[in-house]
Amino acid sequence: MGKIFSKPVSSVSSAQHASESHNTPVMLTEPSMQGDAPFEATLDHQAADPHRNRTIDNIEPHGSASGHYLERMPTNPPFNEHEQDATTWGRSGDSPVSPKLNTKGLQGGYSPRFSIDSTPCELHPDTRKKVFRRSWFGEKRAVQVVCEDLCQILERAAIALPWSEENEKLFSPSSWITEPFEVIVHNRSEIVKHHSELDDGDAKKHLGWFLERLEAHQPGLWQKQDEILSGSCRQVLFEHLWLLYPPGSTVFSIDDSAWRAYIIERTETVTLEHAAILQIHVCYLDFDGTGRRLIPHRTVIEVTSYTSERKMSALRLKPEWYIERTTPLIVANLVKRGNEYSGLGGKPHYREYEGDAWPKASHDSKTKVIVDYSTSSKYTAAGDTARNQDGMSSCPVCIGESLGLFSYSEHADDDPQICVNGVSHSTHWSKASQELHIGDKALLFCPPRLWAFSLNFKTWKSVSHEELHVVESQNTSFEQDLCMKQSRKQSLRHIVSGYMKDTEDVKLISSKETVGRKGRGLNILLSGSSGTGKTWTAECLSEKFNVPLYSMTCGDLGVHSGVLDQKLQETFTRAKNWNSMVLLDDADIYVYERDIYSLNRNALLPIFLRHLEYSDCLTFISISQFEPVDAAFASRIHVGVPFPKFDFGTQQEVWHLVIDRLPHDYLEKDELQYFITHELGELDSGGYREMNGRQIRNCIDVALVLARNEASSKLQHHHIVRILKLGKDFKDHVLQVANESTEFRARNFFID
């Protein structure tokens, strides 16, 4: 890309200085007097005549300070004749607009640089006044406009570059511009317009002559630019590709199967051993570290060189004028999507996801997820696309101002990323607030995907926010589907409702009001046999109050003290940040009474108790209670809810609830209801009167599969009877095996 940089304090070129210096002299060519010769022809002529050189000193260490942050000073290694020939401009196969990286350096880490004042100038053939200088910067050609009048004209016509500093002059006798001279090419229309408005004089002659020399040096380039500006460009060579992406322009790309927009910051062509690469530096809007604001983020899109002309439709990055002509609805759709994306900042959001980022149990199953860009539990991606990687400003306000991509408000909190260039915050705010309103145009630069955390799978995935939906409160599950005494259900509802209120005075337990209380959490113990509704109770309460449920089992938490401590810390931190309930399911191993024989289990209990005591969350702990719980654990429990085994009346209630939830096309409902009410209790002499809720649901699921395989395809009572008998046969088999095993041990290990 073409760069602009200023000269350092010039040094005096003399034999005396050369004798005092310990550095190697550089050979510079004499100025050409062929005013009408093409730009590259003059350089070729000079490079081919080594006898027209003179020596100056001023050799300094490579990378020494140049007084300007944009570029190091030009290097000019002493090429031999073969190397000069290989890098001559205008040779066949070389692109005049594709810069090459200079990899030739002197031994010892030193590279020479020019004394700017000693570089020869080009004289206008008529006025005989100095107009510009030419030089090599590595293997790139460069020009320096030395005519003051010409500099002023170019300065008025050119727009500021995104990487230039505030109040920096783009054209001055102290600035060099490297190929492909972007600042001139991208501003050519305005420069030509100013040329036509000038009065006849030296300035107009100098500008016209300068443009003619530049156009002769870049054959075909300006014609292609005219096609692009008129919107008639249909295909483009790689060497002209950068013309499609002027700084500050909008481009569109399909990433992750979705359209998105970027704003161009700059382009740069890098020549490697076997190919050239166009690096397109772009910006987009995304949340900052606090999740409260959208700020510019940087990324680089690379295009590898190609040989023939490529159609516009085949380009990865398509310019805005092409999109407006071919698919005009994209901009409106991206603005709408960006508005939705910006609404997911700030506090964490609880959503329902319907995509396929995570495995699904069925085609219509939905995953509950958390979108978090603000708390300590947020997803942290590898790398930071907004971080400074090339010496340019990493201040988001600086980037936003340079590209017209404002997002900060005047009253925004201080951000440590802001003002890294020595500019005060107040200066940034006062400048940005004049044009701040982040309108529709800016929102189209938001990304198409965001990070979401699955509460079921406990993993982060990049998802499309179009597949996210607001979670609606479900009251029916708790009120109608949960089999529990109404008085107990009402007490649970009032306790949870009171705790979930967002005021300190209604919380049941406050660390400020209760002596010895470390946290403000509420621990509810759910104790009972398997299949009696412990987990279902926590899930129903989560749906009723529309609050996330962060569930962990013994397998998730582990049985090693270090792992348990880490997992519990992570669980309660996320639950607090996301305002969610916690379910520690099947936690028996952590709460049993301590004894002298289970030292490892004894070590787990204090860790478990400490996290419960310091918790600020509503926590459900479910256990089967086959053994007595530890007294220290019992003292940490605020509410205990028993879940006794179902009597037959409760079992019938569960049967009816499950059947009522099935589609009517799948069953003979009246027949099934009669069977459950009048016949099930006496079937096989009451052999099916001791079933839990999970067994009942499993029986109906398998009976449905059996019914679909028959001609009727509807669930009838005889399907259920067949499955019940299969289950009874298996149970009898297990009991028989157990009895045989007991008899075997008795015969072999005990004496009659």
Task: Provide structural commentary.
The protein is of the alpha+beta class and 752 residues long. It has 4 domains: 4-219, no CATH class; 235-347 and 372-449, no CATH class; 476-643, Rossmann fold, CATH 3.40.50.300; 648-738. It has 25 helices and 24 strands. The strands form 6 sheets. It has a 5-stranded antiparallel sheet. It has a 5-stranded antiparallel sheet with strand order 12-11-10-9-14. Helix 18 (561-577) packs parallel to helix 20, helix 22 packs antiparallel against helix 23 (669-679) and helix 22 (648-660) packs across helix 24 (693-708). It is elongated. The relative contact order is 0.06.
Give the strand order, joined by hyphens, for the main sheet: 1-7-6-5-4
- What is the approximate shape? elongated
Helix content: 25-40%
Spatial gap, N to C terminus: 99 Å
Number of domains: 4
Number of helices: 25
Mean pLDDT: 76
Number of strands: 24
Low-confidence sequence ranges: 5-117, 382-391, 407-414, 418-437, 503-512
% residues in beta strands = 15-25%
In angstroms, what is the radius of gyration? Answer: 38 Å
- Derived from helix and strand composition plus strand pairing, the structural class reads alpha+beta
Sketch the major β-sheet: 5 strands, antiparallel
InterPro entries: AAA+_ATPase, AAA_lid_fung, ATPase_AAA_core, DUF7025, P-loop_NTPase
Domain AAA+ ATPase: 520-647
Biased composition (Low complexity): 9-22
GO molecular function: ATP binding; ATP hydrolysis activity
